[in-house]
Structure formats: C-alpha cells, structure tokens
Amino acid sequence: MTDNPLTQTPAASGSTCVAALYHFATFPRCAEFREPLQALCEENGVKGTLLLAREGINGTIAGPDAGIAAVLAHLRAQPEFAGLEHKESRASKMPFLRMKVRLKKEIVTMGVEDIDPNKIVGTYVAPKDWNALISDPDTIVIDTRNDYETAIGIFKGAVDPQTKTFREFPDWVKNNTGLHNKPKIAMYCTGGIRCEKATAFMKEQGFDEVYHLKGGILKYLEEVPAEESLWEGACFVFDERVSVEHGLKEGNHKLCHACRNPITAEEVTSPFYEEGVSCSHCYDTRTEADRDRYRQRQHQIALAKKRGVKHIGS
C-alpha cells in the first residue's frame, strides 16, 4: 500500500479503503485474466468495478485495507501493470454493491481509433505545480469530464465542454477553433485517465504544448491545502459517496436514482424531488409511468432496509 496518511487511521476517516486506479498497457490476454481477478477480489471482500481491455485496466474498488492491498499486489505482479499507480481515499461504509470485472474495447471510451497514450501523450503536471500553470494567461484550461460532473465542481477559470459522454469530446475539440488562440492547453479529469487519452488526441490534432494534471482532481484535493486551492465545489465520484471534497472527505451530495445526477441539499428541497423517483434534473424528461415504476422500486428498497438487507437496485 502507499504511505497515504488517509490509510493510517481508518477509524477516524472511514472504515473502508477506496482505491481508484488505471494503467495503459498492451494487454492482449485481458480475457483470460478476467475470471481469476474476479475470484481474487471476491475472496478478499473487495467490491467495485474493474474494466479490462487490450489497452489496459481501469476502475475503482473498495474493501478492507488488507483486501485492497492483496488485489493491488496481484495486479502489480503482472508485467504489464508493474508500474500501476492508484489513489486512495476512505469511505464510512462500503460504497459498492458487488464486484464486477468486465471486458471492454476501451478502458475509457473515446471512440477514436489508434489513440495510444503509450506512444504519444501530454506533459504531466504535479498537483503542487498545477496552480501556476492554470493561472498563466497563456493557458487554456479544459475540464474533460461530463456535464453532470462539472455541475458540482470545476477549477477556477476552466472551460466546460458540457459533454454528455466522453465520446463527444473529439468533436467538441474539432468544432472549437478558438482553442488555438493560446499556446498552452491544460486538461484535467477525476483521476487522470480521460486526460491520458484526451491529451494524446490533442497532440494528434496538432496541439503542441498540452499538459494534464497527474493523478487528476483526486490527487489535487489530497495534496493541495484548501487555503491554496483553485478548485471550486466538490468532485463527483463513481460510487455511493457521490462526491468528495478537500482532503478527500466525503461530500454532501446525494444521487438521484432516477437519472444518476448528483443533487445538492438545496435541490432536495425542490418540489420536483422525490427520493428514488425524480429530481429537478430529470422531472421533465420522465413520464408519470416512469415515476410509478421508480416508486415501486423505492418501496422495495424501503422494505429491504427494514429487513436489514441491501436491495440490489438501491
């Protein structure tokens, strides 16, 4: 495991270790690797999602410290993943329902052929040097995440492409000729993986000075003190914590289980909000029949909670 101080006092900061990881590598044996990895995770009480593809591995897992250590050690024992890095945080309870190891065409889906971060990629920038780069007037800062993520947090002065999926990003770049107006492009995402592909794509498109935040927002929030931070808001995470803040402490957002959008405490008071059924983001895009179906699901969740078990659809 790393020397991350968050792992030293789990009782104080959360009993469950959460590890976000990815690694680009040539990995043609991904299919045969899936089942043994699934079994190892289950044996060690680890849950979450890991994606395997010929281009590498990506995902987030959670579990006891020893279980996470065992899975990471197994991954790093593979020649392809010897240099794998991960980012740790804590959760007050298990943030995943099950363990899923899935085979994919890409470990992060951009949909552009022959983009290989192992061959061409932007310049990594450490969190401690990020503020200086994005404060430079010669730099355009781009958030490569999707609109529901940027809605709750973004770096000061960053451009928000307002994409629904990462597949839309290449077209957004091609349609924004103004990106050539400044010499430097600085890009960031949650943990770094989307930026690996995004900077590779930008370099292929002829952009010269392309930078990206090493370790993503998660590493920045871990290492940069709040009083020095240029981050505004919270960072969306893909588990039941919904968001994290400086020091990687759990945020205050909830998740609308109808549309999967993060919602604030203020949005919970909206007349359009009904737990598990609707929120102000999705009320107008769902029918009453949809909401009736969601209410039935929410009722089953409530019954399961009374029985002291976790409903699989919660």
UniProtKB/TrEMBL annotation:
Its EC number is 1.14.-.-. One of its GO terms (biological process) is tRNA modification. Pfam families: Rhodanese, UPF0176_N. Keywords: Oxidoreductase, tRNA processing. Belongs to the TrhO family. NCBIfam families: PRK00142.1-4 (NF001136). This is tRNA uridine(34) hydroxylase. It comes from Pseudorhizobium pelagicum.
